[in-house]
Amino acid sequence: MLWAGLALLTAFAMAPFVWVLLASFKTRVELYATPLVWLPASLSVTNYVEAWTSKLTPFSRFFANSLWVSSATMVATTAISVLAGYALARFRFAGGRR
Amino acid sequence: MAREATLARPLARPLLSRRARELLTGYLYLLPVVVALGATVLVPILSAIRMSLYRNVLIKPQEYGFIGLGNYARLLHDEVFWLSLWNSFVWVFGSVSLQFLGGFAGALLLHQAFRGRAVVRTLTLLPWIIPGVVVALIWEYLYQPNYGALNDLLARAGLMTEKVAWLSNPSLAMPAVIATNVWRGVPFFAIMLLAGLQAIPDELYEAARVDGAGVLGRFWYITLPMLRPIVVVATATRIIWTFNYADLIFVMTSGGPANATQITSTYTLPPGVLEPRLRLCGHLSVVLLLIMLAFTTLYLRVTRGVEPVA
């Protein structure tokens, strides 16, 4: 009973990921085949290499952008929030409760 | 943090009193956050309000001008707007209630002791962690009529003879995007409620067992009341988020087909170039803002005095 529920829960959460993972190894022919091919013929990583390096979808560049945006955001928000947090905790302002 | 006693007066009176200097320092510390929030929150809101008072149709720049509440008056007769409000209600109610039920079941399961619990917890949390746009793309692919997994699965199981275009059928599109949102939101409720379950002391259950309470009795008289605060907070938060949550629908259907999945927050987004409704939607943003203010007020009232257990 417990295991059936857990299996159902995990399958519910994971199935779309598994499908996309399988699709990521497929060749173009396999992707658009009718009837649908479930398992890719080989575990080729060409799609990943292409996504990472191609001019159309330069994921290396996207990844660098994400890294840059998130670290800049982190540094800026932390700096600003630390100052504000300190001020709100340490000083008494007009309109404050105490 | 008591006020420090002044032991000795300085010989020369400083320009500013001690209190004034302290206040000034405090405000200086607050300056960055005021500037940042002002630039990212206050200014956009004010400019949206200002924008909402002007006629601003992009293809008719010569008609640009102040029209007061004209945009709002037109909104009252805008059928799509009223439809989008109704759709928002369906979207929020459908998503949140199913997410809650699924998440509650998941939390009860994950609360049990079993081998590999950490692994299962991590795996089931994954849909919540990945970005909304990625969720939308994955599910668009699953729903795809010709090479999507869902149609293929149903056909193989013998449940379907004709291919179904899930996202372009007006009566199926809303259930389809809600299902996607449920998939995404179940882990949220599961993790929140799991935290709540873990905070319930075991002694309560032991005492109830000694008093002869069964499984259902313990669930009804201990688990549910003890979870109440976290249920209220999680559900209220989720309602607000779901109402605002536009990216999933925007990526999957852009509010179509024929506005079947148009919710108020997607209706507010700038429409595509080919749309006849080529105007800036400042007034819609303001309406959305007012609705969210109402929600937030309600939220603060409902959750007042309710402390989350986690």
Biggest β-sheet description of chain B: 2 strands, antiparallel
Shape of chain A: flat
N-to-C CA distance of chain B? 28 Å
- Number of beta strands of chain B: 2
CATH architecture of the largest domain in chain B: Orthogonal Bundle
Written as H for each helix and E for each strand, in order along the chain, the element string of chain A is HHHH
**What is the average per-residue confidence, as pLDDT of chain B, rounded to a whole number?**
83
Assigned CATH superfamily of the largest domain in chain B: MetI-like
- How many distinct domains of chain B? 2
Query: Can you tell me the overall shape of chain B?
Result: flat
Gyration radius of chain B (Cα, Å) is 26 Å
> Strand pairing plus helix content of chain B: what structural class?
mainly alpha
Strand and helix layout:
The complex is a heterodimer of chains A (98) and B (310).
Chain A (H helix, E strand, L loop, with lengths): L1 H24 L2 H4 L14 H8 L5 H32 L8
Chain B lengths: L17 H35 L1 E2 L9 E2 L3 H7 L2 H33 L5 H13 L2 H12 L5 H8 L13 H29 L3 H9 L4 H30 L2 H6 L11 H5 L13 H21 L8
Task: Write structural notes for this entry.
The complex is a heterodimer of chains A (98) and B (310). Chain A folds into 2 domains: 1-44, no CATH class; 60-98. Chain A has 98 residues and is mostly helical. Chain A is built from 4 helices and no strands. The mean pLDDT of chain B is 83. Chain B has 12 helices and 2 strands; from the N terminus they run H-E-E-H-H-H-H-H-H-H-H-H-H-H. Chain B is 67% helix and 1% strand. By secondary structure, chain B is mainly α. At the A-B interface, helix 1 and helix 4 of A face helix 1, helix 3, helix 4, helix 5 and helix 7 of B.
Which structural traits does this protein have?
heterodimer, A: about 100 residues, mainly alpha, 2 domains, B: about 300 residues, MetI-like fold, two-stranded antiparallel ribbon, 12 helices
